[in-house]
Amino acid sequence: MDMDKLYDPKAVEPRIYDQWISSGAFEADPSDERDSFAMVIPPPNVTAALHLGHALNNTLQDVLIRYRRMTGMATLWMPGTDHAGIATQTVVEKRVLAEQGKRRTDFEREEFVGMIQAWKDEYETRILGQLKAMGCSCDWDRTRFTMDETCATAVRETFFRLFKDKLIYRGKRLVNWDPATQTVLADDEVEHQDVAGFFWYLRYPLTEPVECNGETITHVTVATTRPETMLGDTAVAMNPSDPRAEALVGKSIRLPIVGRVIPIIADLHVVMADPESADEKAKFSTGFLKVTPAHDPDDYQIGLRHDLPMINILAPDGTISNQYSWDDWAECDNADSEAILGLDRFEARKVIVDFFDANGLLESIRDYTHPVGHSYRSHVPIEPYLSDQWYVAVKTQIASMADLGFIGDTDVPVNSLAGLALKPLLDGQLKFTPERYAATYQTWLENLRDWPISRQLWWGHQIPVWSRPGSAPADTDTVLYREMDTDDGMVTFACVAANNTDAEQALTADGFTRDPDVLDTWFSSALWPFSTLGWPEKTPLLDKFYPGNVLSTAREIITLWVSRMVMMGQYCVGDIPFTEVFIHAMIQDGQGRKMSKSLGNGVDPLEVIDSHGTDAMRYTLVSMTTQTQDVRMPLAEMKLPDGRMINSSPKFDIGRSLANKLWNASRFVMGNLENTPSLDEVEITELADRWILSRLNATVRDITASLENYRFNEMSETFYHFLYDDFCDWYVEIA
Known about the structure:
Elements: H1 9-23, E1 36-40, H2 52-70, E2 74-78, E3 80-81, H3 85-100, H4 109-133, E4 144-145, H5 149-164, E5 168-178, E6 183-185, E7 190-212, E8 215-224, E9 235-238, H6 245-248, E10 252-254, E11 261-266, H7 280-284, E12 288-291, H8 297-306, H9 335-340, H10 345-358, E13 362-375, E14 383-392, H11 417-426, E15 431-433, H12 437-446, E16 451-452, E17 454-455, E18 465-469, E19 479-486, E20 489-496, H13 501-509, E21 513-514, E22 518-519, H14 521-525, H15 528-531, H16 540-545, E23 550-553, H17 558-573, E24 580-583, E25 587-589, H18 605-612, H19 614-623, E26 631-633, E27 636-639, E28 645-648, H20 652-673, H21 687-708, H22 712-734
């Protein structure tokens, strides 16, 4: 066999991959009677091309699926992409604004969605091409998209079932609001960052002086990190054990700027002031808490306990507005209040602080570093915001299931959605590697709040609910009705099952209007392990490959995605979607920073393939993957033969050297085997031959053990030493 003297991955790797594809080596056969092994690819977002983190995860998955395929199992590795509602719409909105100077609202909904669809088509093609270039052995003919017809049917069926079980409801709650993308976020879509800020100490005048412990009090001082929210204050609270409480509770304050008269109330939530305390809250507290129920989670609970008004002072874009339940704005008839309307929340903060300072009401300012929630998509600070949304009740007993009580000493009912996700972990059915991530999963589910699933977007699965004022007709097989008391009176909501356009048209003709919001991206992603297999139809593919076996993913989506897949797999199909979750390391640059485009420290896997080859990239990534720490990838500029400058890493030289070594060893072996009989006819008599075969068997044993335990770096190290030390340095030299 003729082999080139120099190894050229660009000439060799694509040819081999094409042979695999043409032979059908990656295709899943549901009629295959062998034991099955199935994985679903964590569907990459169609926002942009893949990065090195995707290359790492998909390489590890490819190693796992090829290993199971080589052991003689019937395998399925399901590929696909995610529509990524917030992220994709935001990217396209920015592009359209930059290129056309227009915003989303300048277009009809269908026209703008068409623009996003074009973006999706472009990047999906690019993403799938990258995965193939990386050597991924997916069943490409079965590629799915979270908004294709098959997945959309699963989404509608799940929503309809949840609505029927009364696990979906609409309610006004305090939510995490992203003013940049103007949509609600779930708790696990909020990233907390330590921010260097301030405590502003503001004086609130009493409506009349109060005698307390021998002194006359004319004002109380509140401490706040968000002065702009004072516009929505509806009370000042103090701890009932505070010595001043007897004199002050029940008295009133006239809120500066606004003029609103608000009460002083007693609530145990308030931390009493103690400048010497190690507790940060007590150390910075004045003993008085401004209560803004519409813009703070703790204040919201106080508002519910004391039946306080809830005044929303913000528009969806984060500007100060009197159009969202600020009923007493007419009382604010002064130039100071008018000047604040329309300002961004942070601009308003400065104006309000200046007002307090100018009027002798700013007592002091103290430096304060504290965690602030940021949107995981737009990265701006989120705003607690009172809003009507659709929710999934995660800790409500499912009526169609037997009541088996609670899980352990938690408040999680066994037969709630949270319980369906938690119990398999505690029963040992679901395992995490490394084991420490099981605690993340468990803690999240034990503390899980109801899941807000509506998003104020145009790109996504539109919520299949129609509404109109008035009472509800009787349910049918395809339409479920529910009456709800809203701010606008009694409203009937109608949920329509999948593939019933006649029912939808009948509702529209009867005066019903469809909800404009779309579902949270994670709602459809939660169905990914079985929606891709054709559920709710009982397809041969679903019967053969569900439940699957392993999920390989990053730790950042244990709560966002992993928990919800287990939850919905149990609820919809009656079984967990996988039995093992492998959480792989994260790739960082040489300084330990997460790779990102904004930092300029990202690496394009296709450029690494251009410079080093696919196998070189894959081997290097696998060799760096341990279960204990993240992967550091020192970066360096590199010039390609075509003159392009790329961002790469000298780490990949390890993989390139190994590929060259394997190529040269193969040239030597193939050159010496041309005139030999079939290996089946060769009698092994030489000591060296017996020795290398024993080393090969030991290597197979050790690599198999490493793969079974997800110890990828050990696997690569074992292979490296067999190739270099045993085979090349000894056996080839002996030969």
